[in-house]
Amino acid sequence: MELREGSVLAFHTDGLLASRERDLDASQRMLREALSAPSDSLDEICDRVLHALLPPSGSADDVALLLARTRGLPSSQVATWDIPADPALVAPIRKQVVDQLDRWQLTDATFTAELVVSELVTNAIRYGAQPIRLRLIHDASTLICEVSDTNHTAPHLRRAKTWDEGGRGLLLVAQLTQRWGSRHTTEGKTIWAELALLDEL
Known about the structure:
This protein has helices spanning 24-36, 42-53, 90-103, 110-127, 169-176; strands spanning 8-12, 65-69, 78-83, 132-138, 142-149, 179-184, 189-196. By secondary structure, it is of the alpha+beta class. It has a five-stranded antiparallel sheet with strand order 3-4-5-7-6, covered by helices on one side. It is elongated. It comes from Streptomyces afghaniensis 772. GO terms for molecular function: protein serine/threonine kinase activity.
């Protein structure tokens, strides 16, 4: 699903709409009205939704509400490469990543990003299907490394035995990054890993 820049997504439990005073259609209408009023603050929108739908005494059911706003990044913060299925090209790809991080002035992330990119690209070449694409995305606090291919098989984390020659790639990625995961697309899958650029306080 493609969303416009600035779209607000609302995820909620059924407890938000359940009420003895009104039917479900009325609750959904009230939710749409509360969400549609313009605001720059997601906290403000949450407060408006909760005040509109919940009685002052509280809800008889558990209520959870999560809001997210879509936000695009300028193309200057995204770098993309198409990757040939040749293991000999992993080293030149690492060099391109290092050069890109240098241009972005993110040299502190170079060592970890090199390792993560190397593992994800190598796995895509070995187990994925063409075309393979590497994408780096950064904002002020994170660097995301994504590798996409057209194989629909999801990766799985496994613990290699002492004498195994492989099987440590995703474990290494999981240990070096603050989080990682995969998402399926209509064309295949994308494996992503997120590196923190700011020291945690």
